[in-house]
Amino acid sequence: MSKTVAEVMTTDLVTVSPETSLQEAIQILAEREISGLPVVDNQGKLVGVISETDLTWQATGVDTPPYVMFLDSVIYLQNPAKYNQEIHKALGQTVKDAMSDRPATVQEHQLVREAAQIMHEHKVRRLPVLNDRSQLVGMITQGDVIKMMAAE
Q1: Cβ proximity of 99 and 58 under 8 Å
Q2: Residues of the domain holding 94
Q3: Among 14, 21, 108, 137, who pairs with 6 as Cys (CB 3.0-4.6 Å)?
Q4: CA 36, 85, 23, 52 torsion-angle sign
Q5: In CATH, what number is assigned to the domain containing residue 81?
């Protein structure tokens, strides 16, 4: 796996903006048969990623966090802030509401094995690829890594 990310990444990207409706993002994912989209602002800067996982909140809803009652007080057994974030994702209407806003990324000059390691560490199936000016230039997926391994 001595190739660089730039040699195997996809450069024909479809992107969405934070204001894109979730329904439109779902349509793009289904029509293109892809599992995630980079989210860019008006200047083309990467601000997040919207994935099938992010969108499943719409279908599954949110379970109330476990709690106990003690002396007329509610004591949450999980972080209530995480619950509020989950509600926001479940009820959101735009990409901004559901996207992951701190996606793991990789630089185009890095080796594919480094990208594979980042995917493994962050438990993601795709990584936005940035150039030296932090501009989005491509995406690398687990499928790209597997294709490269098969070709070697």
Answers
A1: no
A2: 5-151
A3: 108
A4: positive
A5: 3.10.580.10
